[in-house]
Design brief:
By secondary structure, this protein is mostly beta strands. It has helices spanning 24-27, 129-132; strands at 2-8, 13-22, 29-34, 40-45, 51-63, 66-75, 93-103, 108-118, 124-127, 134-137, 143-153. It contains two helices and eleven strands; from the N terminus they run ββαβββββββαββ. The strands form three sheets. Strands 1-2-5-6-7-8-11 form a seven-stranded antiparallel β-sheet, with no helix packed on it. A two-stranded antiparallel sheet has the order 3-4. A two-stranded antiparallel sheet has the order 9-10.
Length: 155
């Protein structure tokens, strides 16, 4: 669930924000199946928790045809350090974004955007019993950079 808002502060400046909730606990309830003559399945609880999302940003029209955007978003961690695995190293998430749009004419707008995703260090310390042992570590660089090009054509 997500609620978003935009407030046009002045003719050149708009403020944006959203708040959300994601049902990660349901995602963590999964069934594993083994294909065989007698189908076997096992329900697994990955111990995920629901998360919250908070974001805010702004848009500034520097000229009639140019629009700049910037924002920040935060998502809480869906899984604790004790239950985190290196296959899905999800810690809290921080996102920083910027963008620019240029209105070519009344029908066409082009843009460029960049988002830096910081998945934090995502430490994990999992004890899987006497046979599997202990798995411990973190991700010193859990950063992804996204670059996007957009085009809006009104007809």
């Amino acid at each position: 669930m997500m609620a978003s808002g935009l407030y046009q502060l002045t003719s050149a400046l708009a403020l944006l924000g959203n708040i959300g909730w994601q049902n990660w606990s349901q995602f963590g309830q999964t069934t594993l199946g083994i294909s065989a003559e007698n189908q076997k399945s096992l329900a697994v609880d990955l111990k995920y928790s629901d998360t919250i999302h908070l974001a805010f940003g702004g848009q500034y029209r520097v000229a009639e045809r140019w629009l700049l955007s910037a924002g920040f978003a935060y998502d809480s961690a869906p899984v604790s350090e004790a239950n985190r695995t290196p296959s899905l190293p999800m810690d809290r998430q921080l996102r920083y974004g910027t963008g620019v749009q240029y209105q070519v004419n009344e029908e066409l707008t082009i843009g460029l955007a960049n988002e830096v995703f910081n998945g934090c260090s995502a430490p994990y310390d999992v004890r899987r019993g006497p046979l599997a042992g202990r798995l411990q570590g973190d991700f010193s660089s859990n950063i992804i950079d996204f670059l996007g090009v957009n085009l809006a054509w009104r007809f």
